[in-house]
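Translate sequence into structure tokens.
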Amino acid sequence: MLKLLVVHKFIFIFTLYSLLFTFVGRVFADEVDDCIKNNPGNQDPCISLISKKITDLQNAINPLQKESTGLQSKITSAKVTIANMEKQIVTLGEKLINKETNLEVQKTLLYERVRQYYINSRKYNPLLVFFSSHESTSLLRSYSWYQAVINQDKNTITTYVSDISSLNQNKTKLESEKTKLASLKKTFESRITFLGGEIKKAEAYKADLSKRQQSLIAEKNALFSTSVGDVSSSDDPASRSDYNPGFSPAFAVFSFGAPHRNGMSQYGAFGRAKAGQNYETILKVYYGDIRVEKIDTGSSIKTDVGTLPFEDNYLVGIAEMPAKWGDEGGYEALKAQAIAARTYALSRTENLNKQICVTEACQVYSKSRLNSPGRWRQAVADTRGMVVKSNKTGQIFSTKYASTSGGSILSYSSSGHSTPMLWDTTCGNQSCWPSSSYEKSAGSAWYYKGWYKSRTGSAYGRSHPWLNNEEFSDIVNAVLYFTKTQDQSHLSQNQNCISGCDPDSWSRDELKRQVSDKGGPVTRVNSVSVDYSTGGYTKTVRVGTDKGDLVFDGGDFRDIFTLRAPGALTAKSGLFNIEKK
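Result follows.
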């Protein structure tokens, strides 16, 4: 039988954990905030700190979950025991009713037999024994029979009384145990509700840490402008897939486009303009069910560098697409960009306290572009007052755009309007991708690229994006470990670290040891390939190794590659390929 002592143990544990999570939540938040504050522009230490805190928090949650599982098992057992007791009580009740009924019948029989015996005994005369042997024999036989029957009835009644007493005692005991167990069950249920709340709070805080970690990773990953800017980006021969790293086997991750892949692709618009599409067609392709409408945009706009004339200063100074494209067959792309930039600015100032920043956090406003706008000024003037409006809402929305999407545009929603997911190809679908995308025909250097330099051009000791077998096997082991444990706290880079290596990160040898019971360690990669989703992302990564064929989720591989890969190596896009040469 369960003991009430167990309840007191659980009460103590629950109280302890409740205080624990209240404390660690406050301490963790303070530590992370201090780290971010004290490391401006260098978030690697903070990423490592949050990873460690997530692991510590999970280690604290595990005992709670274990206790919860044990407690739930005890509740289930108590329910079963109570149900069995209830059945036994019903059975005992039925037996009592039967015994009590039989007892009443037996008492009636006994009463009748005793009465008859008494009547007959009055008839008995000892003198008859001397006068009639026949009568005496009959009377003696009858007398003996009554005596035997009466004795038997007495024994039966005694047995019934004893049985009824025993049944009543058992029933009373069962009912008492049932009451105690029901009370214990209620206490367990109350405690498990409390425990569930504590686990939920801990999981919520863990999720918040994970969110902050991903935010910092995203910040680390944002090493370049997502728009084309004043001039087209220069091509880096080492970032192309035909580059020879000088060793074999060699492995590299190549990204199709770059985040965020939402809205208008600038190189895609350039390619479409060169193919004869006008600005309205281009905008409808990227933003969906919209119309271009001319409105009164107002005379000025508030920016974080002051209030500027809207059409003749601010928009002319927007440096988000090369003006020279207007002379290279891309003038309709310039007009599409002018309308998108105008709409974006108005949507930002409507929703963000009527002020817009002049950096990449919003859209770039440049004095050099203002002073030398080229054909961009003409595109602004030719589209004066024109904005994009949703046919669904009748309102403007955030018209996002980026340099290159890799031939696949992701859907997003803004102010009640949703843009389409689409393959930005000449055939209009995935069948001719990646060879026949508008970005490729427009010559985007970011269409298919291996990223290995920071925004400032630092390569941290590496001259190309290619990894040797030992380096790539280490990344595969890291992904394998994460796949099995969902723990990335020890998987940060430990070679060519961009801002100091994380002391908690495992070495290659330690990582091998950690995956020795998880399907590894991988020491040789024989082949690698990827599967693409029709939704525009890399769905799976398939790796042939000396430990057999491994299949990883594409998103998991990208995340761990970004954490573990040396230097500034990263997968910029969720749509990527891995090559081996």
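Note: The chain has three domains: 4-221, 237-244+452-580, 259-445.
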